[in-house]
């Protein structure tokens, strides 16, 4: 059984990653992470061991193929929620190009903001602008989440 974790604890854990440089396939606070690595790292901080380890993936993995790896993995371990219900501490998943698989994710940090890792940058808290909003395809809640 998963222990309860508050929304504020999840957001605080994600904010502690701000400034971590982008590193493909990494998940190490302060040393490097990609968008999946950020979510994996926050999971470890609030829940302990990760439920599964992702297979190796190339930097352009989302440009080819039809298997929705991120959406399927998130659905195995998190609770799918309606997009309009996503709020602080929930994970949002993006499809960056029509006809391609979903390949980016972030943690909602407030009503109009998110925390994410993006290539050639570092983990940042940014505005959830119309550009980002139109690419959201799914939202998930961490297990055991409680409102606080």
Secondary structure layout:
Blueprint: E1 5-6, H1 7-15, E2 27-28, E3 32-33, H2 35-47, H3 69-77, E4 79-81, E5 91-94, E6 104-110, E7 113-116, E8 124-127, H4 130-135, E9 136-141, E10 145-146
- The low-confidence runs, each spanning 5 or more residues with pLDDT under 50, are none
Helical content class: 25-40%
Tell me which CATH architecture applies here: Alpha-Beta Complex
CATH fold-level label: endopeptidase fold (from Nostoc punctiforme)
Shape: globular
Secondary structure category: alpha+beta
* Tally of individual helices: 4
Number of strands: 10
Distance between the termini: 20 Å
Return Rg in Å.
Answer: 14 Å
CATH superfamily: endopeptidase domain like (from Nostoc punctiforme)
What's the CATH class label? Answer: Alpha Beta
Strand content: 15-25%
Instruction: Give the averaged pLDDT, no decimals.
Output: 93
- Biggest sheet architecture: 6 strands, antiparallel
Strand order of the largest sheet: 4-9-5-6-7-8
Following the backbone from N to C, one meets helices and strands in this order, namely EHEEHHEEEEEHEE
Fill in the keyword field for this structure:
single chain, 148 residues, alpha+beta, endopeptidase fold (from Nostoc punctiforme), six-stranded antiparallel beta sheet, 4 helices, 10 strands, globular
């Amino acid at each position: 059984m998963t222990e309860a974790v508050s929304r504020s604890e999840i957001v605080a854990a994600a904010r502690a990653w701000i400034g971590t440089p982008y590193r493909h396939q990494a998940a190490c606070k302060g040393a490097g992470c990609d968008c999946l690595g950020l979510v994996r790292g926050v999971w470890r901080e609030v829940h302990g061991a990760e439920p599964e380890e992702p297979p190796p993936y190339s930097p352009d993995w989302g440009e080819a193929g039809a298997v929705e790896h991120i959406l399927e993995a998130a659905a195995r371990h998190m609770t799918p929620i309606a997009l309009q219900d996503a709020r602080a501490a929930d994970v949002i998943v993006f499809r960056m190009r029509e006809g391609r698989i979903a390949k980016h994710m972030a943690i909602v940090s407030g009503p109009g903001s998110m925390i994410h890792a993006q290539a050639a940058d570092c983990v940042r808290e940014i505005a959830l602008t119309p550009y980002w909003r139109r690419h959201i395809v799914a939202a998930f809640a961490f297990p055991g989440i409680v409102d606080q």
